[in-house]
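The methods section describes the discrete structure representation at length, but only in general terms. An entry of this sort, consisting of the sequence and the corresponding backbone structure tokens, reads as follows:
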Amino acid sequence: MTELAHQTALELAAKVRNREVSSVELTELYIDRIERLDGDINAVVVRTFDDALTRAREADVALARGASLGPLHGVPMTIKESYAIGGTRTTWGNELFRDNVARADGLAVQRFRAAGAHFLGKTNVPVDLADFQSFNPIYGTTGNPWNVERTPGGSSGGSAAALAAGFTALEAGSDIGGSIRNPAHFCGVFGHKPTYAVIPMSGHELVEGIPDADLAVCGPLARGADDLHLALDIMAGPAPREALAWRLDLPAADFERLADLRVALWPTDPLAPVAEEIAERVALIGEVLERAGATVSRDARPDFDLAAADRNYQTLLNAVMTGAMTAEAEARMLKVVDGLTPDDVSRDAVSARASVMRHREWIRTNTRREKLRHAWARFFEDWDILVCPQMATTAFPHDHRPFGERTIDVDGVAQPYFQQLLWAGMVVNAYLPSTVFPTGPSKDGLPIGLQAVSAPYRDHRTIAFAGQICAEVGGFVPPPGY
């Protein structure tokens, strides 16, 4: 039974459907693994085992009478703590919401249940989903299954750790600054940040009825690209209010072989240098693609100023992240901004201005973002896929110091902690789809994942690319000991 723990959700669904394993047996397997192995990792922090077993029994009864509950019939999964499951806490790791219990299942949970899945529980996050690590005062720290002294990433760190360790068949996270993709990279699994707004954010919330934020998306994590494809189709589509009038019709992948593709490589950049080994991995992917017959460019870039684009993202991001700022905090920040010189475009200065900017300045910033989106659109007329890093390094040691004291060690050079947001942010800011895929271990045995980025609504293109390239190099491998 142990070998089942690391199979894909689609493989497990087929085994349940073919009666090679029952839903109850599969659910008990994952519960046993969580109870035995999750102590050091601390990924599955909200546990709904009794409900999972009840629903597993119902799935087996339904199968016995010839009924199908959907493509994930009888498959147990977990989901990020920030999603609402009725009767469970949804805290986002924030002490102020310690006793916040969801009244009902959120939309994503409803859709996965409608597809036949049931939930073992929810997985850990950082406070307010705002870190490359996953620790908070309510649930504690989540470790990386490849090395528990290192972070699994954030904010969907518990999601990726649970998948890698074989505690769940499938996961869903959210992403505004790499929060699906950096945990996928750190833990050696697949993660997809969809095109903005193709998946409703309803049910991914602390308080019901909050409108979807700019930049932020929900999306799946998995142990295989085919699972991402299925999970995206399950999660995507209008929320009930909008469904009266419109439908989503994401195009299928538009290529058959890697040889059909035009791929641009962006291995590193002086604005956010990455470790040499990660840049080399991007180059390796290029060599594999060339051998497969693909057209590859090492210098094609979208036509915009990257530093200005990064500031644009920082501004829009911090406008979202400071939306709940108190009046007192706003007053303090206004004093800080009044003391800035006009030529100060440092990250701290950009963030400070964004937190208190007037709406007309947001509109101007959004207009500049629209020009960037047009530049990306022109780029993807010539290129099908961009392959680039997701993060500057492999998973780094836990660092719980205040943000201002943290740095990232990139080949022996201390770089600013949030500098690596460039790689996630240029994709988020333009509302582009991006799939992180595992490419194998680094020299120190930690996973390296890379991004495959494409034009808006070409989500199935990046997912299909991830599946095909991983057939040549990389793919999911369980961490030792799990």
Summary: The CA atoms of residues 95 and 137 lie 7 Å apart. The first helix runs from residue 9 to 17.
